[in-house]
Design goal:
InterPro entries: Gingipain_N_sf (IPR029031). This is Gingipain domain-containing protein. This protein is α/β, with parallel strands linked by helices. The protein folds into two domains: 2-138, Rossmann fold (3-Layer(aba) Sandwich), CATH 3.40.50.10390; 149-336, Rossmann fold (3-Layer(aba) Sandwich), CATH 3.40.50.1460. Helix content is 29%, strand content 19%. The strands form four sheets. Strands 8-7-9-12-13-14 form a six-stranded mixed sheet. Strands 2-1-3-6 form a four-stranded parallel sheet. A two-stranded antiparallel sheet has the order 4-5. A hairpin with an 8-residue loop joins strand 4 and strand 5 (102-105). Helix 5 runs parallel beside helix 7 and helix 7 (282-295) crosses helix 8 (300-319). The chain is globular, with a radius of gyration of 19 Å. 49% of the residues are buried.
């Protein structure tokens, strides 16, 4: 199996400085993952494939990946190193009538053709967080099972969240906001867990996630609530995976990834959708399938890809087509972290 690790030398250097420690760590990463043939390539430098370097344009970078595949053979996994200023997200047309001007997506990097909705490859991203030690940390993670989970939902989505959370835990233990808020949140709840699940409100401009009951929107979780979390994080919050011009100080996704024992994060880059009650759809269903595949022992990357494929099949069976919300859901959910890690 082939894995392409991709970044920009010049742009990543601007964000994190000297890249020598990263290059050395990736060599060790290759040796630890001998089941994969792994190549590390800078798209803006001369390379072993003799492919013309690409500019910092998503379309050019995608062509660069596909040209490598033509020379090397099918690539099963693409791992992007760096945030939006290094390897930019695609800005895709928003199929929904909402406030998002576009949908930030990594889906095109996972697709061989021009249908970006359903991934053909695993595609994950390790954001740079403006720190080279942050990137290296993601490449050095491992996991110990605890057979416990944590979940938190806005009160208005209680029933929908229970339907997802029951895949990984006892619905009686699901925290509801309100009454649970950042002020009475116990950081110990996030310790020694396999899965961390959140169905809360989010914002592109706020570092917090919010609960809801009627017109009340209390802060449910803030970065300072996270100190020693473990496991895999799945968030349905709007903008839960939005990291443009952010760090661990003002993005919960990066705060989670900065924990040594968090092995991955799945979330949405834009406004996300989901029903208030079962049956599961949109964000609920993507996360539900993701949990199921992770429990079956698939790698984080394979579980994420399969969850999107199954989501698309389910929605076509249910409606006969993929509606606007379904399309946006497929595009907006991204995976951060090492895609080769497993929970089971």
């Amino acid at each position: 199996m082939r894995m392409l690790i991709l970044s920009s030398k010049s742009l990543l250097q601007k964000e994190v400085g000297d890249l020598k420690p990263l290059v050395e760590e990736i060599e060790r990463y290759k040796k630890r993952n001998k089941n994969y043939e792994i190549k590390f390539v800078f798209f803006d430098e001369d390379n072993i494939f003799s492919i013309k370097p690409a500019k910092k344009k998503p379309k050019e970078i995608r062509v660069f990946i596909n040209q490598i595949e033509k020379k090397w053979g099918n690539i099963q996994t693409v791992l992007i190193i760096g945030g939006d200023r290094v390897v930019p997200f695609y800005r895709l047309p928003n199929p929904c009538d909402d406030d998002d001007a576009s949908v930030l997506s990594d889906n095109p990097y996972a697709s061989r053709d021009d249908d970006f909705l359903i991934p053909e490859r695993v595609c994950a991203r390790i954001p740079d967080n403006k720190r080279i030690d942050f990137i290296i940390k993601q490449l050095n993670k491992s996991f110990i099972r605890f057979d416990k989970s944590f979940g938190m939902s806005a009160a208005v989505w209680r029933e929908a969240s229970k339907n997802v959370y029951k895949q990984i835990g006892d619905i009686k233990e699901l925290k509801i906001s309100p009454p649970t808020t950042s002020e009475n949140f116990n950081s110990d709840w996030l310790e020694n867990k396999d899965f961390l699940y959140f169905n809360l409100h989010g914002s592109a401009v706020s570092e917090n996630w919010y609960g809801q009951q009627g017109n009340e929107y209390p802060v449910a979780l803030k970065p300072s609530n996270i100190s020693s979390a473990t496991g895999f994080v799945a968030s349905e919050a709007c903008y839960g995976a939005y990291i443009v011009n952010k760090t661990e100080k003002n993005a919960l996704s990066l705060r989670f990834l900065d924990q040594q024992d968090i092995i991955g994060f799945c979330g949405s880059t834009t406004i996300a959708y989901g029903p208030p009650a079962p049956p599961s759809g949109e964000a609920d269903l993507i996360v539900k399938y993701l949990f199921e595949y992770l429990k079956q022992g698939l790698s984080v990357g394979e579980a994420f890809k399969n969850a999107k494929v199954d989501f698309a099949r389910k929605m076509v069976r249910r409606h006969g087509f993929l509606d606007d919300d379904d399309q946006k859901t497929l595009l907006q959910f991204v995976l951060y972290g090492d895609p080769l890690l497993k929970l089971f």
